[in-house]
Specification:
Radius of gyration: 22 Å
Helix content: 25-40%
Structural class: alpha+beta
Number of domains: 1
CATH topology: CBS-domain
Number of helices: 6
CATH class: Alpha Beta
Strand order of the largest sheet: 1-2-3-4
Order of helices and strands: HEHEEHEHEEHH
Strand content: 15-25%
Distance between the termini: 77 Å
């Protein structure tokens, strides 16, 4: 049974936390990746040896920009829409006969849930990545952090200013009024 005082204290604490102004500073980026409100916690993976066509079907069905490639459940690569675009334009090949390993980025940089958001941002900026696989201590994929996850995190600091905007931007007239 719940103690009324404990429940009141917990509700009061939750209210105070929701009323505190969030400040976007360097400390916000030192937080662990696990605090991100992930848009999608499902890991889409395909085993090595499968073909590109099957990987693309999963990506289209699930509306994701990447799929992780595994061997015996351990991360060995990442297959992105960019990989296909860049590599398939120049090569004429049957995607149903081509193995996903031909297109994937092998041994991608991966992080874990305890690494900081700053590490994700650094990897995205320096490496030009839009997706970073997250793995456990055994190199088994547990999630993928995306640029969208980072943007959502930053927007959470300015929710009133950004989410309360009118549906269309207001453009100011560049013409002078009058004669």
């Amino acid at each position: 049974m719940f103690d009324k005082n404990e429940l009141d204290d917990e509700l009061h604490q939750m209210f105070e936390e929701s009323q505190q102004e969030k400040i976007l500073n360097s400390q916000a980026f030192l937080q662990p990746i696990k605090i991100l409100k992930k848009t999608d916690n499902i890991v889409f993976a395909i085993e090595e040896g499968n073909n590109v066509h099957d990987a693309l079907k999963i990506m289209l069905k699930e509306k994701v920009g990447c799929i992780l490639v595994t061997k015996e459940n351990k991360l060995t690569g990442i297959f992105t829409e960019g990989d296909v675009t860049r590599k398939s334009i120049l090569e004429k090949m049957d995607l149903s006969q081509t193995k996903v390993e031909h297109f994937m980025s092998k041994d991608p940089l991966s992080l874990n849930m305890e690494d900081s958001i700053a590490f994700v941002l650094n990897a995205m900026v320096v490496g030009g990545f839009r997706h970073i696989p997250l793995v456990d201590d055994n190199n088994i994929p547990v999630s993928v952090v995306t640029v969208k996850d980072i943007i959502n995190y930053i927007v959470s600091f300015f929710s009133e200013e950004i989410l309360n905007l009118p549906p269309k931007p207001i453009h100011k007239s560049e013409e002078r009024e009058g004669a």
